[in-house]
Amino acid sequence: MIIPNEELIDILQLLCTDGIGPVTFYNYIRKAGNVKNALALAAQKRSLCPRKTAEAEIDKAKKYGAEIIAYTDSRYPQNLLELNDAPPILYVIGRTDLLNYPVSVAIVGARNASIGGRKIASRIAYNLTENDVLVVSGMARGIDGAAHKGSLYAKNQTGATVAVMGTGVDVPYPAENTELYFNIRDNGLLISELPLGTQAQISNFPRRNRLIAGLTESTLVVEASVHSGSLITAKLALEQGKEIFAVPGSPLESRSAGPNQLIKEGALLTESADDILNTLSMRYNKTIKEQKTLALPLDKPKNQVNISAHEKISVPLENKKTENIDLLDLISYDGVDIDDLLRNCGLSQSDFFTQILDLEFAGKIERHSGNKVAKIRG
């Protein structure tokens, strides 16, 4: 059941009051019995958020095409309700039927992912989506973006995916993923617990990570350092009793340290979507679907939208430019195809080959047969 507007205003008014986060919010609800009584109880000790502010937030969401879904709404993800700090409200844009999708897997990993890591994430996401497993990620650059793109490319480029954002649901971040943001908005679901207009802040992303872990039954890590947010997401999922998958990598690569450590600690070594599908089939005591293994390019889906067709969006001024690309971050010790590297680095052809030459002269990379370049082992 979709909750009445008055109840949603009550929830927003309580939640937007200074000093009230999710845990405190639920403490008031438990003590008072319902949100209306909780407001009265909170008013005895605090200055409540003006009711007009809550009403304005609902109006703002409607104008942008977003919905605010409260924890009492039947559409609210049941997996999240198991968290003691579950967001009392979620801002969503897109397919709300994905909120309680039967089988879902989070795919997370390094922002400075290698070309190989991105291809693996994209291919696994593609094959999971082809087999009716929903892929959830955080829309960051690197592994997250590759996973979303793989899902969108599946099912004849109508595949769905869920992006959990560390900004307001109306703020695409990073700016280089603005086109991806609109693809997900059109074909999948965007979720945030943060108020509309919230810009990117470091403190937002650990909060986002717990939601990624909470929404899904399993988490796959593809390339991550041992202290990365992706490892935090995996450990949060583990604490929630979820299955952890990890793609192994070279011990010479710092980006492989996180997945390799997880495997040592009991995560399931994963080389393809088959490894995940087989585990899910055993858990649900049924075949998820016969695996379709199709080659998947890392390139963007062909069904990308024309951004100009959408209303103006909020993008932080400091993020208008594409983030600086360090080519060395995209190159592995095993080597990467130069054409793949050029296609996915975001640099112009002249800037690309200038940087390649600089790295060669600096003794950091070397050319291999088959039109490849590789890091030099030091």
Written account of the structure:
It is a single chain. The chain has 378 residues and is an alpha/beta fold. It folds into three domains: 5-96, no CATH class; 101-284, Rossmann fold; 324-375, Winged helix-like DNA-binding domain superfamily/Winged helix DNA-binding domain (Arc Repressor Mutant, subunit A), CATH 1.10.10. 41% of the residues lie in helices and 13% in strands. The protein contains 14 helices and twelve strands. The chain has helices spanning 5-15, 22-32, 35-43, 51-64, 115-130, 143-157, 178-187, 204-215, 229-239, 257-264, 273-284, 327-330, 338-345, 349-361; strands spanning 67-70, 89-94, 104-109, 134-137, 161-164, 189-192, 218-222, 243-247, 268-269, 336-337, 365-368, 372-375. Strand 8 (243-247), helix 10 and strand 9 (268-269) form a beta-alpha-beta unit. The protein is elongated.
Spell out the key features of this protein:
single chain; 14 helices; 3 domains; Rossmann fold; 41% helix; 378 residues; alpha/beta; Arc Repressor Mutant, subunit A; 13% strand; three-stranded antiparallel β-sheet; nine-stranded mixed β-sheet
- Biggest beta sheet summary: 9 strands, mixed
Examine the secondary-structure arrangement and name the CATH architecture of the largest domain.
Answer: 3-Layer(aba) Sandwich
Average predicted confidence as pLDDT: 86
Ranges with pLDDT <50 over ≥5 residues? 297-323
Helix content: 40-55%
Cross-sheet strand order for the largest sheet? 1-2-6-5-4-3-7-8-9
Question: Number of domains in the coordinates?
Answer: 3
The proportion of strand residues reads 5-15%
Total helices: the number is 14
Number of separate strands: 12
Q: Give me the strand/helix succession.
A: HHHHEEEHEHEHEHEHEHEHHEHHEE
What class, by secondary structure content? Answer: alpha/beta
Radius of gyration: 22 Å
CATH class (first level) name of the largest domain: Alpha Beta
Distance between the termini: 61 Å
Quote the CATH topology of the largest domain. Answer: Rossmann fold
